[in-house]
Design goal:
The complex is a heterodimer of chains A (118) and B (148).
Chain A lengths: L1 H23 L5 H17 L2 H9 L1 H4 L3 H18 L1 H7 L5 H17 L5
Helix pairs in contact in A: 2-5, 5-6
Chain B lengths: L3 H8 L8 H29 L8 H17 L2 H9 L1 H4 L2 H14 L5 H8 L4 H25 L1
Helix pairs in contact in B: 2-3, 3-6, 6-7
Protein name (chain A): Stage V sporulation protein AE
Keywords (chain A): Membrane, Transmembrane, Transmembrane helix
InterPro entries (chain B): Spore_V_AC, SpoVA
Chain lengths: 118, 148
């Protein structure tokens, strides 16, 4: 249990350090970093690497945005097994739906209630 | 003689030093802490509500997004962001923050043209590139599994 927390912290932190290096050294914008990470997550999942990372690091791998790409591909592949080609499109948002829906909903509600700061 | 190279060396002392190491440590600690909270939530949802570890992913992400949206509303998340850089941008909370802050920023332009139209200004690129790359990788994998 303690080790789970330890590795979640270390792996999650390490992924963020990669992002920071992309920001500082390669002068990418945050949007570029986030987009690259999502693509990286999808590609790593294509080689079945990302699941191993999740097994090892738990939330350290599921909380960074890379897991968004991983979930997109996972949903697509699950449906592809059942429905073939069209399944890729059917399933692509299956697992990420909760994240996107809640981000839209909460973002909208917060924008209604709060006043912009600064 | 002032050449381009000389000039670059001369002004080096007056330019702000890139604080790469410091920034990386900050990103590591804050990003790690957010993942630590995620791990705590995972344990909470598996122990208290009996989710399997895989199924717990959805409520964990949803909770983090809710927290991030609220903190953005209070103006706290942007302060964390100034301190942590990628440490708060890379976790899924950064995704929620980009949606909420874009929505808030354009509130004065109205709900339809302001809030709703601008919500995905930053997050849109994440969804577009994620979807396109997952689609391509998915197709390739499907073809390989079918025909090899």
């Amino acid at each position: 249990m303690f080790m789970d927390f330890f590795w979640a912290f270390v792996v999650g932190g390490a992924i963020c350090v990669i992002g920071q290096i992309l920001l500082d050294v390669f002068k990418l914008t945050p949007a570029h970093v986030m987009s690259s990470f999502v693509v990286a997550g999808a590609v790593l999942d294509g080689f079945n690497v990302y699941d191993k990372l999740i097994e090892f690091a738990g939330a350290g791998a599921t909380v960074p945005i890379t897991s968004f790409g991983h979930s997109l591909l996972h949903g697509a592949m699950t449906q592809a097994e059942e429905h073939g080609f069209i399944g890729v499109a059917v399933g692509i948002f299956q697992l990420t739906s909760a994240g996107i829906a809640s981000a839209i909903l909460f973002g909208f509600i917060v924008a209604l209630i709060f006043k912009p700061k600064g | 003689m002032i050449t381009k190279e000389n000039y670059k060396n001369d002004i080096k002392n007056y330019q702000p030093k890139p604080k790469l190491l410091k920034n990386c440590i900050k990103a590591f600690v804050v990003g790690g802490l957010i993942c630590l909270i995620g791990q705590g939530l995972t344990v909470f949802y598996t122990e208290v509500f009996g989710f399997s570890e895989k199924a717990a992913g959805n409520p964990v992400v949803t909770t983090l997004i809710l927290l991030s949206a609220l903190l953005t509303g209070f103006g706290v998340y942007d302060k964390i962001g100034q301190f942590a850089g990628a440490g708060s941008a890379v976790p899924v909370t950064g995704f929620a923050n980009s949606i909420t802050s874009a929505a808030l920023e354009h509130k004065s332009e109205g709900l339809v043209l302001g809030v709703a139209s601008n919500m995905f200004k930053l997050a849109g690129s994440v969804i577009v590139f994620g979807t396109v790359s997952a689609y391509i990788v998915g197709m390739i994998r499907y073809l390989i599994e079918q025909f090899l």
